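Limitations

Structures in this collection are predictions, not experimental determinations, and the ligand pose is part of the prediction. Treat each record accordingly. The example that follows, with S-adenosylmethionine as the small molecule, is included so readers can see exactly what is and is not provided: the inputs are given verbatim, and the output is the predicted complex.
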Amino acid sequence: MTTQTIPFINHSEQNQIEIVDFYNEATEDYKFWSNDYNMHFGYFIPFKTNPFKRDSMLNEMNAQVLKRLNIGSKKNRLIDLGCGMGATMRHALKHYKNVIAYGVTLSNFQVKQGNELLNGKNGIILKENYNDTSFQSNSFNSAVAIESLCHSGHNYKSLREAYRILKPGGRLVIADAFLKRDRNDLCKGGTYAYHNLCNHWNLEKLEPYYYIKAQLEDLGFKTIKIEDASFKVAPSVLHVPFAITGFILKKVLRLKGLKKESLHNLKGSFYALLSGLHLKSLGYYIISATK
Ligand SMILES: C[S@@+](CC[C@H](N)C(=O)[O-])C[C@H]1O[C@@H](n2cnc3c(N)ncnc32)[C@H](O)[C@@H]1O
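Predicted complex:
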């Protein structure tokens, strides 16, 4: 399917159509990034994670996010807002036997293939918009969003929906790239990297981390903690050029052409690397809060 500009729909709706196309076509490329289909960057801990083994860092990101949910030993209903292929859900189900995991995504490909990977496990992926789900209010103990809320431009609506579906006392943990200053105050190089990153990965926009903190406070979230994880994430970002080169070589050797969406995705990865170098403009944060 090709992405077309459809008249009479707004920018957000057009962006959503592009997200669906992008993930329906490019998700399988992520197998090259991660055996476990982690569609995010990793978390490096010296002497614990091997910086040369990407999946060990990617799974450590799952572990770090889940740790901040304070899951405990009672039954825990967890929702992954923008779950991709369900890698974080599978990690949670493997390490916390009391978890029941739900994931939402816009991509049909991810619903079908992700649910196959969850076969026999206590989890399910549904095709739902995380800005407006069909779940009852106060129904989850835990919510995670890894590199997904950026697609809606770190929208207030996404945080409001997370607040609505969490039970009082429930925890939200977000891991994502955020701006370090207002968009208009980025340096020239930072602006270039930021705009290209958004264009190539279909991110509506990114907000500064302090904007998210203010929105979470406004919604009534408590114990908000903002952690700059940029240096923990950097070793996995440095894998990007090698992963891209390997991916292209594999395609060339198999005489396979590159899909438009794959190329878009690869360029996006390159701009993620470039954005990562603009330490004063962009950073990677883990934000946790309690309802
Ligand atoms: C970069 S992937 C990250 C996937 C997963 N969190 C991970 O770390 O492996 C972004 C995900 O967000 C999902 N997404 C983007 N916008 C969404 C929306 N409005 N509602 C639900 N899912 C959305 C995409 O479908 C995709 O699964």
